[in-house]
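User: Predict the complex.
Assistant: Input components as received:
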Amino acid sequence: MGVELGKIFDSVMKNSLFKNKSVLQTGYSPDSIPHREKQIELVASIMAPVLRGERVSNLFIYGKTGTGKTLSVQYVKDEIMKRSKEMGIEIRMEYINCKLKKVADTEYRILAALITELGGSVPATGLPTDQVYSRFIQLIDNKKQLVILIFDEIDQAVKKISDDFLYSLTRLNSELSKAQISIIGISNDVTFLENIDPRVRSSLGEEEIVFPPYNAVQLKDILNSRCKDAFKENVVDEAVISKCAAFAAREHGDARRALDLLRIAAELAERDGKSVIDEVYIDQANNKIERDKILAIVETEPSQFQAVLYSILQLTKQRKGNEEFYTGDIFNHYQDLCGKIKIEILTQRRISDIIAEIDMLGLINANVISKGRHGRTREVKLSIPQNLMDKVEVILTESLGV
DNA sequence: AGGTATTCACATGAAACTATTCTCTGAGTTAGG
DNA sequence: TAACTCAGAGAATAGTTTCATGTGAATACCTGT
């Protein structure tokens, strides 16, 4: 046994296609960010006054996922920090991702995360929020300094909390005597600023920058520049890159997606012992990404979600796929199911929300339609690919104990 | 035929409730001086 | 008297229930021709 494993390890070492895989993984910050020069310059020119010790305008940045927002901002942040260290200026720039569950998805936790970043500490719970605020203020206001807070995916936070959180933030300056803060908000949702309190809008959106999606040509450039560091010589050819770029361009120009695609394709090729990445692996990678995403969701959702999803699955099978069905059908089926597997039956109200959430996750397709005299409801269709159905069913039956 | 009023079957929203986890506070207890 | 323990009050959070209100268009119901 040990010998065979040794062989496997040896061959993996020898046949690796990668020079440095991390170059393709999320979180890697490249030396250059192609096709974002303009945006970076803009961000930098807006942030620059901080080096003169002036408070800078609040900045708001939009752009779809994978358009380089975070990367660019981080880049400018690092440059500014470097420079400020040379010049001996007190500047703090803190980056918070508001979407990370259990880290920064509520008002309390965002503040707590900031405080930890700044070297303080707060308990995870038990404290009134306004006390956390005052601790935060104390921490910042203990000396004269400029603080720039970067909130990534800020739209997620506001959806979950409310926009008076932003209001308190923008007003924070008036409570500080020595320090001053500026805010950079990053959002995927272009319409985000339109839907919030006008007072907040005007103050948060003092400056705005839009990051447009990459097109296929730009994506190719990005992939090419990363390939040099990521792969050994002659592992990828132009056609593969093109295909990758084309795939990702279709997905609203998501560079992250393109990189994932390439990395996973390479991993698959490597596993097959190939020394070159063939185009077919791009297709395989695409399927694998989709597949893994769905399976991960199905596995990790709580049992009530699983029960609802299982009901939908059963109904789909019953109806031979063709006919759509409605909230009421699902609820009835779900009730029976609960009886059978002996779990608590939730209200229809709740099931309605759960269906909406499963829709959000992309496992089903649900549209609100009006059937006239027969009321208004959601028309639901399963959107899990046929070849995954069995696998999903197995997971659900196992975890529900049907 | 054309117009309008109803009505269904939920959607959607807001508030309130529950259980869990955690802090903080202060009363009561203990042990050492 | 200082240190320690422990119960109770108060918070945050996630998941849910309760109550309330909204809604789009097929159909029932008129209306006048």
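The beta strands of chain A are 59-63, 91-97, 146-152, 180-187, 207-211, 325-326, 364-370, 376-382.
Let me know if you want any component modeled separately.
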